[in-house]
Structure formats: structure tokens, C-alpha cells
Design a protein that fits this description.
Helix content: under 10%
Strand content: over 45%
Number of helices: 1
CATH superfamily: Lipid/polyisoprenoid-binding, YceI-like
Low-confidence stretches: none
CATH architecture: Beta Barrel
CATH topology: Lipocalin
Distance between the termini: 19 Å
CATH class: Mainly Beta
């Protein structure tokens, strides 16, 4: 990703003011509800500015979950879904990153929800590295993927009169991430 990669380790932190950690789920089989996390941390360690062998760790506090509807947020934090009182954070740790021929990546890692740890794969688009007007080095990424919420014990649902269920099993992960290089 960078011609200036060095062998020294470089640490990066997520720039929360320029990042969005979101998920999307079909509701009533006709629309999509988007949620986000407002309280999260991520650390990335690279060789210089080369993200090809990056180590990534991420956590999000479930109490910060926001779908734009307080009643729904409380239900999602309840034992019906995330059980935030007993399992306050969700976390992700990378296990590998593989670059494709277009400069994008497949990110493998372990996602922990409700005490269940399962492997997932995310598509990662590297958007580039730039210096901001204050001299900080930033790197941008778009991460996308899908998981089955039921695999992590998020099984609550309600059947619909018209067929199908209130909440889809598939959850789309959609993140826009800007990292800040530590100096």
C-alpha cells in the first residue's frame, strides 16, 4: 500500500470524528434499519505505512448503540439481543489480511458478541493516505461484510402475518474508517 514502507512498527488509532461504525438490518422485510456505535476504540499496528500485514483490534460499547429510536435501542441492548448488561462490549481481532489484485483487501478476524467468538471476513477498500492541514498522517478505509446474527445467539424475532419475520437474520457491516498515525 505504500512505497515508503519501513520495517519499523507504526501504531494507528481510529479518528472518531471522521469514522462511522454501522450495521444494517432488514425490518418488516420491506425496509432497512441502520444502527451505529458511538463509543468505540480501534488500534492498528503496521510495518511503516504498509497495511498489508496490519494487526487490528476493535471494541464497541453496546451502551452506545444508536438506531435513532430509543425504545429500539433499549430492546437491542436487552437479553433478547445483545444482553449488554452481561456482555457490554463487542470486539474484533484480526487474524489475517490478504491483498487482491486491485489494491483492496480481505480482512479475516474473530468477532465476539455475547461471549461467542466466531470468524468473519470483511471486504476492505483502501482509500489512501494523506496529511491533514495540521501535519497529521491519516489513512482511509471502507469495510463491508455480512454476518448471520443468529450465529451469535441474537435469535429474537416475531413472525409476520404476511410471512417472513420482523427482523432479518443477515446483518450488513458498513464502516468508514479514518486512522491517525501516532508519531
Amino acid at each position: 500500500m505504500s512505497e515508503q514502507a519501513t520495517t519499523s512498527k507504526t501504531k494507528w488509532a481510529i479518528d472518531k470524528s471522521h469514522s462511522h461504525i454501522q450495521f444494517k438490518v432488514r425490518h418488516l422485510m420491506i425496509t432497512t434499519v441502520t444502527g451505529s456505535f458511538n463509543d468505540y476504540e480501534a488500534t492498528v499496528e503496521t510495518q511503516g505505512e504498509d497495511f498489508g500485514k496490519a494487526t487490528i483490534n476493535f471494541t464497541a460499547k453496546l451502551a452506545s448503540l444508536n438506531t435513532g429510536d430509543t425504545q429500539r435501542d433499549v430492546h437491542l441492548q436487552s437479553p433478547d439481543f445483545f444482553d449488554a448488561m452481561n456482555y457490554p462490549p463487542i470486539s474484533f481481532s484480526s487474524t489475517g489480511l490478504k491483498e487482491d489484485t486491485h489494491g483492496n483487501y480481505l480482512l479475516n478476524g474473530n468477532l465476539s458478541i455475547r461471549g461467542e467468538v466466531k470468524p468473519i471476513q470483511l471486504n476492505v477498500s483502501f482509500e489512501g493516505i494523506a496529511k491533514d492541514p495540521w501535519g497529521n498522517t491519516k489513512a482511509g478505509f471502507v469495510l463491508e461484510g455480512k454476518i448471520s446474527r443468529q450465529e451469535w445467539g441474537l435469535i429474537w424475532n416475531a413472525p409476520l402475518e404476511s410471512g417472513g419475520f420482523l427482523v432479518a437474520d443477515e446483518v450488513k457491516i458498513a464502516c468508514e474508517v479514518q486512522l491517525l498515525k501516532h508519531v
